[in-house]
């Protein structure tokens, strides 16, 4: 009888470690999740429209000012003949962009396009990191759920076997009650794991920007991430998208200062026109050409307020850049240390713990099969094996997520 029980527990151990694959509507790898998020996330589409809007403003900035056309009549009095007594004046007023205003306006529009593009790239980078973190949370929750479900399914066979042995009078009722109690405890854990897995699945699909929430099978290999070469801090600052975006903001602010500086220069207008003057007491008239230049005189208003405001924005942008760079330094060192600690914990503690727990469970099964131990010790060994397996899985989740955070801190592209 005990050898038969041993065979059941051996199946219980190894099928618990390698549960049957669950069927689902959508198989999803990590790269697939990131790709779908970059394509369907509504917030990214909104950022892309900001780029289109900035490009439209740049096209507008490149256009030259339209001329003004003015038509007027003079000497209109009652009793006059329009074609004989009324003077006619027609003028065209063309603003002249010859003092650098158009050039600086275009340059500022170019910087606005650069900023919109940098913000879009930053949004993509942030979405990629969020999706990767959510993916590994869901992947780990899926693994825990399957381990517990398989354990419960295989433990049911142990319950059925001991129930049959109790009916035959081969074991005490207390042993069956212990088996059933352990089965019920595992069932509760499996149900809670199913709730956690469903919550993690919904969170992953939300981060991906999906509007449907199908069942998923996350297929990314459940292997430890490889360590990366630690780049220099200067290289990290050059890679990071948020640092580049902050630098673009500084350049845009400086371009705005140049626009406000040239705005203080005079405005020039060229006026060309035609005037027909009727000669007194005759049907004849004189045609005259008109030409003039109009210029504003910046005596009181030299755009002082706007220039001061633009200069303050430059200083503000520079301080924000310094803050971003300081945050990147702290994030990089923290992510590096966390990854190293997670790696050490996984390799020196969790992996050996898992292997030792499996070995102890196998020894307990063999001893129980030979009648060398009681059922309670066997259940304790199986419980320890399952707890070690779940600790290993949770450690793998944290290990994978620390690798994601390190890659993001290093400025690795999505």
What's the quick description here?
This protein has one domain (2-410): Outer membrane efflux proteins (OEP), CATH 1.20.1600.
How would you describe what is shown here?
This protein is an alpha+beta fold and 414 residues long. The protein has a single domain (2-410), classed as Outer membrane efflux proteins (OEP) (Up-down Bundle). The chain is 69% helix and 11% strand. It has ten helices and six strands, in the order H-E-H-H-E-H-E-H-H-E-H-H-E-E-H-H. The chain has helices at residues 2-17, 30-40, 42-62, 82-85, 101-167, 173-208, 233-239, 241-263, 304-369, 375-410; strands at 26-28, 68-74, 87-96, 216-218, 268-278, 285-295. Strand 5 and strand 6 form a beta hairpin. It is elongated, with a radius of gyration of 39 Å.
CATH class: Mainly Alpha
CATH architecture descriptor name: Up-down Bundle
Indicate how many domains the architecture comprises.
1
Structural class: alpha+beta
Biggest beta sheet attributes: 4 strands, antiparallel
Overall shape: it is: elongated
Computed CA radius of gyration, to the nearest angstrom: 39 Å
